[in-house]
Amino acid sequence: MTPDAALAALRWLAEMGADEPISETPVDRFLASTPREAPRPIPPASVGRAISSAGAPRAEAELSARESAAKARTLAELESTLAGFDGCALKATATRLVFADGNPKARIMFVGEAPGADEDRQGKPFVGVSGQLLDRMLSWIGLDRSTVYISNILPWRPPGNRAPTPAEIAICLPFIERHIELVDPAILIMLGGTAAKTLLGTAEGINRLRGRWMDYSSQGLPRPLPALATFHPAYLLRQPAQKRDAWRDFLTVKNKLKTVL
Ligand code: URA
Known about the structure:
The protein has helices spanning 3-15, 29-32, 56-71, 75-83, 90-93, 117-122, 129-140, 166-183, 193-200, 206-209, 233-238, 243-259, and strands at 101-102, 108-112, 149-152, 187-191, 213-216, 225-230.
């Protein structure tokens, strides 16, 4: 192969999302893959949710996610349930599960979108450049990782940091919902449009959602949580002028923290 052809092949791989070597030895996934199984019958409880035969595996995965997440009684159980869950294809391309960071007893929980390359390598949310900005934002209001708890809508990295698909989000949603129930924070902060839209179940954009308190409810929470959406740190890195609004949002959070347990 000529150097130009090798470079073109590398560029193509990066565009497809294979943007970092995971081990020294290549693995031929075509050889490793087993022949496709015949489609499994859909369990009766999910039949009503399957819109078409193409939607059936997603409905099945959502149902299985909801059932397994509901069984978790502790964060450790939820983490091991997630680690054993095979219903989301992102697990196969990610290096590892990224569950959470910070203090599970904190009064404030942050939820972002999905791990990036650094998080995928280290197994913790927000440890890359956006995490560094998040740490600075926390310090604006006297917080740090010992006084907050952090997780993401998706626990696995989408290849090449592409946006998560609606199916991936729907399949992983029961886990983050259960995660929030088990932490049961006094307040919930949603970082960016994906977290806000997913948890609030709305199609409104982050510009309209941010900066005001809304109620976040779920079946297993004893009461609705005050929830606030703000800009995602990765967006602030691209649009630093918006930090002024993010600063306002964080002051709103600081004031709220004075009034909660
Ligand atoms: N962006 C996120 O939304 N979450 C992370 O953990 C890292 C970057």
